[in-house]
Design brief:
There is one protein chain. Helix content is about 40%, strand content about 15%. Strand 1 (about 15-20), helix 1 and strand 2 (about 40-45) form a beta-alpha-beta unit. It has helices spanning about 25-35, 55-65, 75-85, 95-105, 120-125, 135-140, 155-160, 165-170, 170-180, 200-205; strands at about 15-20, 40-45, 70-75, 110-115, 195. The protein has a 5-stranded mixed beta sheet with strand order 2-1-3-4-5. The protein is globular, with a radius of gyration of 17 Å.
């Protein structure tokens, strides 16, 4: 159901909706919001209870009518895994995603950002330059050994105790440069390392 527009647009401050598919993204953006000076922008990380691709797409479309900008952050590992395990006919998850991306291009205030395989690949780019494709979070997290992220956990306690945003912030500009070098996501070559989440910092003028 659509929310009241009166609390979103036109209240003197731009409000960005960030639609994510995992709790780790929510904790990361909560910490970003806490420690960055966003004078004219408020951000609202949104983790829906229903996480099917179609349900996330519907939420993005609804929010586009209410918020200044809507940023949909997608981890591609689950979608690739679903396609590889798919049996029988019907539309693949990647085909479904392509249709949603094509449809959302009609909405000027929506940005779809793909991380392949996952958010932790973005963290890895803070630590080193790489274009290697990892198929899963597990494979990425092995690269954290011997770094400031050794012992990394996908828990709220870890994120808040370590303050992962501030922990990684010294390497932020390096991570952005590394992510840019990887180029744009191409739906025809999904198994390629990407961290388009860096574009959020440009959208927020950080």
């Amino acid at each position: 159901m659509a929310r009241s527009k009166s609390t979103r647009k036109g209240a003197g401050k731009d409000v960005y909706s960030i639609v994510v598919d995992g709790e780790t993204e929510v904790w990361y953006f909560q910490l970003l919001k806490q420690y960055e000076s966003l004078k004219n922008v408020d951000i609202k990380p949104d983790l829906p209870k229903k996480k099917k691709l179609s349900e996330l797409y519907d939420l993005v479309v609804d929010n586009a009518a209410e918020f200044t900008k809507v940023i949909w952050v997608i981890d591609l590992d689950v979608i690739i895994k679903e396609d590889k395990e798919r049996r029988g006919g019907g539309k693949s998850a990647l085909q479904e995603l392509k249709e949603y991306i094509d449809s959302l291009e009609q909405l000027d205030n929506v940005h779809v950002l793909i991380n392949t395989p996952c958010l932790e690949y973005w963290y890895l780019l803070h630590l080193k330059q790489t274009s290697k494709y990892y198929s899963s979070f597990k494979d990425v997290s092995k690269q954290f050994k011997g770094t400031i992220l050794e012992g990394y956990e996908k828990t709220e306690k870890y994120y808040k105790t370590k303050n992962i945003y501030l922990l990684l912030k010294p390497g932020l500009s390096v991570a952005i440069d590394n992510a840019k070098r990887l180029g744009e996501f191409d739906i025809e070559s999904p198994e390629t390392g990407k961290a388009e989440i860096y574009k959020i910092f440009e959208l927020l003028n950080l």
